[in-house]
Design a protein that fits this description.
alpha/beta; Alpha/beta knot; 5-stranded parallel beta sheet; 6 helices; globular; disordered N terminus
Length: about 170
């Protein structure tokens, strides 16, 4: 079997096997489904590009309660890592996000969930849950539309995995 090697990363086959055992979910809370979501195709495009690196999925929930209920049913060998997008969260560079994902990969985490919250923000209970399982992530001080935030996160998830595997997509400093 021939494996592509990106850059000087001779361990790409091993990394891909490790990454493929991890599932990443990009979740969001939307009170109503949009019949014409212009961002959905782009979001799926980035998540589909991740297929060579890891399992990925996008999920939509009608409420924070439905999301937290689903999260509570996620069982595996390891606890699901959770990063809630929240204006009070920590801002990270792409490299820092990749390092965070890589740390969880190296620890054997089976599932990571990135979640964009309801229009009025996450409840205190949800923020406390996330602090114990990963944390809060801020995309910056500006307010973004939910779909735009989803697109940014889908691209950053893809970028994180390209950084971890030495793929030339990321040309950061």
């Amino acid at each position: 079997m021939v494996f592509p090697v990106f850059g000087n990363n001779l361990f790409f086959p091993m990394l891909c096997c490790i990454l493929l055992s991890m599932r990443v979910t990009l979740a969001h809370i939307a009170s109503r489904a949009s019949s014409k979501d212009t961002y959905e195709e782009l979001i799926r495009s980035y998540l589909n590009r991740c297929a060579g690196f890891m399992q990925s999925e996008a999920k939509s929930f009608r409420s924070e309660e439905a999301f937290l209920d689903w999260l509570g049913r996620q069982h595996g060998r390891t606890q699901t890592a959770v990063l809630l997008l929240d204006g009070r969260g920590k801002q990270m560079s792409s490299e820092a996000l990749a390092a965070w994902v890589g740390k969880h990969r190296d620890e054997g985490t089976q599932q990571i969930v990135f979640a964009i919250g309801p229009a009025d923000g996450w409840s205190e209970a949800a923020r406390e849950l996330a602090k114990g399982r990963g944390g809060l992530l801020s995309l910056g001080t500006m307010t973004l539309a939910h779909q735009l935030a989803r697109l940014v996160m889908a691209e950053q998830i893809y970028r994180a995995y390209t950084i971890l595997t030495g793929h030339p997509y990321h040309r950061g400093s």
